């Protein structure tokens, strides 16, 4: 059997599983809106037929209705979402990365996939909740994942051209003033929406060009979290049992640089963990928070081995974080501010002249860093919102530890900016939104516009356009002048 036939067989198996799940579940859920099946039987003696209420009949439940009721009980805590996604790069052009050969970018399909998202939430006892979600994807012909064998994430599994992942999965126990949560979850710090210098607890997956928002990219990790509430205060603590790292670009994806070798995972030759606490309190019109944590940097550094020529090493790094955040409301306007001090984060260095953009940086030095993110969110009216934010970082003692001719790879002050706008129309059935972001030094920018229309309680459609621009020296030089058009249709039940 040829490889293509194997792939088609795997795809058929995966689609068969997803379609069977959809078909079976649809039959189960269709009974939720139907009346219970009953049959009316005539009675010979009116007195025996409930003379007290004047009835002359009795209702006898059919055996099949018990099965339907049981099925409803089994699936009532689940929700399902079936989607088909299609994205394509539609602007044929050539990019010219620094110190590298020109790369031709033709019109090309990038995403052509069918997915099933399953959510589960069950308050199975007083004070107890179990919650989770998982997804399955079938990569169809034309998708860059079709026919490839890319590395999977933790709790992600691959079978031919189908992929399965457990995202969120935790159990929560709540008391009057305490709440404990154990399992795969996210912990979000910081006030600045989508662009916070403190939103670094969970890793993120930007391997797919259709994912441009941090809220969609966060990955769950195995944690124990505890919240304690008193008066207008909350103390939150988390312990991460198994710190993970941002995944590298998938082969064949828009972010993958052709010709680069496979990147290794970091060694786990010693127990890894993360821990942190945050104290939050509220005063009239404002919220404040202080936090401290011991963390690992989400982004690995990849360096050439000094003892094994040609071998690439994944370098992980632990550091300490101190932070503070605040917001202040003025009517429809919300001001937001985050501050961070990081002790021992790695600063990438470069040797002159600058190496090609895809070559690993020569070294990374531990340094201390100050960071801030600030911005505002404004409700124009009940249907329109806009938010603007800036994130900036600065290394202290920039020149310490550098070799002759070596310099830091970043500017004195570096970071990102973000603008978001949303407009809800037709009583919320039509949602228009736009995202613009880029770097402070102007070497990268993105603009996106999208519309989502909800047809009814089950069906929705989404269309999106994404444009990216990058300088030849940027790490995203291959995305320069790309224009992507996407379409997504979903059915929820």
From TrEMBL:
- Entry keywords, A to Z: Signal
UniProt xrefs under InterPro entries: DUF1302
For this UniProt entry, which residues form the secretion signal?
Answer: 1-30
Q: Which Pfam families match?
A: DUF1302
Output this protein's name.
Answer: Alginate export domain-containing protein
- Which organism encodes this protein? Methylocaldum marinum
């Amino acid at each position: 059997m040829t490889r293509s036939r194997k792939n088609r067989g795997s795809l058929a198996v995966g689609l068969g599983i997803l379609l069977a799940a959809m078909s079976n579940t649809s039959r189960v859920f269709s009974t939720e809106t139907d009346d219970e099946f009953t049959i009316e039987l005539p009675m010979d003696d009116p007195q025996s037929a409930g003379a007290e209420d004047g009835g002359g009949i009795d209702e006898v439940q059919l055996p099949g209705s018990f099965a339907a009721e049981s099925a409803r009980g089994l699936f009532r805590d689940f929700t399902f979402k079936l989607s088909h996604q299609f994205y394509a790069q539609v602007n044929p052009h050539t990019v010219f990365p620094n110190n590298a050969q020109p790369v031709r970018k033709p019109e090309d399909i990038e995403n052509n996939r069918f997915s099933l998202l399953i959510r589960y939430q069950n308050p199975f006892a007083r004070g107890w909740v179990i919650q989770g979600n998982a997804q399955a994807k079938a990569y169809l012909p034309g998708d860059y994942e079709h026919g490839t064998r890319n590395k999977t994430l933790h709790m992600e599994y691959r079978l031919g051209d189908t992929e399965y992942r457990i995202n969120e999965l935790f159990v929560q126990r709540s008391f009057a003033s305490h709440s404990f949560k154990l399992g795969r979850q996210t912990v979000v710090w910081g006030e600045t929406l989508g662009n916070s210098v403190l939103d670094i607890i969970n890793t993120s997956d930007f391997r797919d060009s259709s994912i441009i928002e941090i809220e969609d990219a966060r990955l769950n990790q195995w944690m124990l979290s505890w919240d304690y509430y008193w008066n207008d205060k909350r103390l939150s603590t988390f312990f991460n049992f198994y710190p993970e790292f941002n995944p590298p670009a998938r082969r064949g994806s828009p972010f993958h640089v052709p010709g680069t070798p496979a990147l290794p995972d970091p060694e786990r030759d010693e127990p890894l963990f993360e821990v942190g606490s945050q104290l939050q309190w509220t005063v009239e019109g404002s919220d404040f928070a202080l936090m401290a944590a011991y963390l690992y940097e989400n982004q690995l550094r990849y360096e050439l081995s000094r003892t094994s020529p040609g071998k690439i090493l994944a370098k992980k790094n632990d550091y300490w974080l101190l932070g503070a955040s605040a917001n202040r409301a003025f009517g429809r306007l919300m001001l937001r501010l985050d501050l961070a001090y990081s002790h021992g984060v790695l600063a990438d260095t470069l040797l002159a002249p600058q190496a090609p953009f895809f070559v690993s940086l020569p070294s990374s030095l531990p340094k201390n860093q100050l960071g801030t993110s600030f911005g505002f969110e404004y409700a124009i009216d009940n249907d329109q919102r806009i938010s603007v934010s800036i994130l900036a970082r600065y290394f202290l003692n920039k020149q310490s530890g550098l070799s002759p001719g070596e310099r830091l790879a970043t500017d004195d002050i570096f970071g990102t900016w973000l603008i978001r706008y949303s407009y809800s129309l037709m009583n919320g059935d039509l949602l228009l939104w736009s995202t613009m972001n880029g770097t402070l030094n102007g070497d990268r920018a993105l603009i996106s516009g999208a519309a989502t229309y909800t047809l009814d309680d089950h069906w929705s459609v989404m269309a999106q356009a994404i444009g990216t621009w990058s300088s030849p020296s940027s790490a995203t030089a291959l995305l320069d002048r790309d224009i992507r058009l996407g379409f997504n249709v979903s059915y929820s039940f």
